[in-house]
Write a structure and sequence with these properties.
Length: 207
């Protein structure tokens, strides 16, 4: 029996579907590379009540992430809509639960990236991406944004930043990804997969 393929964990929170659409484009980029696959996971909303009232399995879309999904990934992409220039609380709640992985250095030297969707063009895309970058650096991950060799960064009239792919969803959150946003998300997933494969084959330190 052959060993399972390494995977890129694409972990996101999406309220109205725009961030999920981006996650799916990143996944397509990952799976355009041979020898690696994408694993889509989401997180449950944060409840203000004292009891857990959400189902264990979401009604649609990706299943909820576990720490083991993160523990065994070859690379990580975090995606969130903006909340006042910050990542959404449900995603941060999950990230805040990863202390045991931090203590063990589980994610050190693994590549990572982030992506976001906002209602307005200047709705805090860059700061939201940076808010997701910070815990990745604390985990010792190797952050990979989008280089300007992706020519859509120079031409986009909506989403797209060197910090990571982004999308302008419109005030009703119903604007689909345009061609440039789709290509940038695809390119980001492909780059992350290539880095994961390259870093996985690097020799370790000599004793």
């Amino acid at each position: 029996m052959s060993d399972p393929l390494p995977y890129v964990l694409i972990l996101y929170y999406s309220r109205y579907g725009a961030t999920r659409a981006m996650a799916e484009r990143l996944a397509a980029g990952v799976e355009s590379c041979r020898g690696i696959e994408a694993r889509l996971r989401t997180v449950p909303p944060v409840s203000a009540t004292c009891e857990a009232v959400d189902p264990e399995i979401p009604a649609e879309g990706a299943v909820y992430a576990s720490l083991d999904d993160l523990r065994h990934c070859a690379a990580l992409a975090l995606g969130s809509p903006t909340r006042f220039g910050n990542m959404a609380a449900p995603l941060k709640h999950f990230v805040d639960s990863t202390s045991e992985l931090w203590l063990g250095g589980t994610l050190v030297d693994k590549p990572a990236t982030a992506f976001t969707s906002t209602s307005s063009l200047h709705g805090g895309q860059e700061t939201t991406l940076i808010s997701m970058l910070l815990p990745l650096l604390h985990h010792g991950m190797v952050y990979a944004g989008l280089p300007y060799s992706e020519i859509e960064l120079m031409d986009t009239q909506a989403g797209g930043t060197p910090y990571g792919a982004s999308h302008v969803a419109g005030k009703r959150s119903d604007r689909p990804l345009d061609d440039q946003e789709r290509q940038l998300a695809f390119a980001q997933g492909k780059r992350l997969a290539r880095l994961a494969l390259a870093l996985a084959h690097q020799p370790g330190e000599r004793s």
